[in-house]
Amino acid sequence: MKQNIFGMSLPQLQGCLKEFKLPAYRAKQIVEWMYQKHVLDFQQMTNLPIALRTSLTDNLDIFRVKLLEQQDSRDGKTSKFLLELVDGIAVESVLMRQSYGNSVCLSTQAGCNMGCTFCASTLHGMVRNLTQGEILAQALFINEVLNKEEQSINTIVIMGSGEPLANYDNVLNFIRLCHETYTMNLGYRHIAVSTAGIVPMIQELAKEDLPITLSISLHAPNNVIRSKLMPINDKFDIHAVVAAGKHYANITKRRVTYEYILIAGENDQAEHAEELSRLLRGQMANVNLIPINPVVERGLKRPSLNQIKVFEEILNNNHIAVTVRREMGNDIQAACGQLRNKHAAENQL
Ligand code: SF4
Questions:
Q1: The pLDDT of residue 54 is above 60
Q2: In which element (H, E) is residue 252 found?
Q3: Which domains does the chain show, CATH number per domain?
Q4: Which residues participate in the annotated binding site?
Q5: What CA–CA distance (Å, rounded) separates 157 from 181?
């Protein structure tokens, strides 16, 4: 099998091309074709000598991802892509056309083994980590879609299937790659990474000195509810997670976002909002309330609009910065993992 060069950084590609004894600028030309012009065939790289194009075609491969299915919401603002990787595994990526720009949500693992009870991605466990190139491939596939509309990606949220900090090196390499001028030239401040709360890895991330946004999936105001919703809480409890978030904010001077999925009858009561306020008081943080996208397989329900408003008001009254996530793509299978599960069931994977 020929070596796939898609996803390599410029220095990695230069290393790979050593045997061809090419001047250094050739690797630069190739990455620009792959990552900026979305050209995935050496023969179409017209500033390379014809003999070199043939030699590269004979020896190397460029595989990005293959589109298996696309679902667009009725309002046209959200598109969900089911993308096939080189070994036939499918992952999901989402494009959200927001008022402030185009945001994409990427997967970092095929499936997930964190076991969160509200999440479809974990229903069949984790198949494998994605490589830096496979994470980049999702972003660049969507960037090509946007480039055809003379637009591009403005923000990346690493919040799709998988626990990013359990695939730490690949995720960090990807973050550095999309900051490069030869890929998307995306500012670190436009990248957010989300974790279920792997405390030692949050501490590692704080040391990287990257001004990315850290998003922590909290989803509960105390250990009893959090352990019920997120088994990882039995390993790193809510107080350790919040302490790690505080440490990250202190080191990076970046506000941490706490994600809080509101589930009717589980974590959406006034007393929970009061308890959450006490937990986060004094932190450089904000809370993002996410009324649950009902997960068919799990039987979980969304709270009423009034209940969401009451919860938000209590946080506001306690001086906790809070936003309610705008609901996008509810008419397509927008909850993380739902489209992939449907595909697997239909194809008996
Ligand atoms: S919410 Fe995130 S960490 Fe939890 S199971 Fe789903 S993908 Fe994994």
A1: yes
A2: helix 238-252
A3: 3-61 (1.10.150.530), 66-346 (3.20.20.70)
A4: 112, 116, 119, 162-163, 194, 217-219, 293
A5: 19
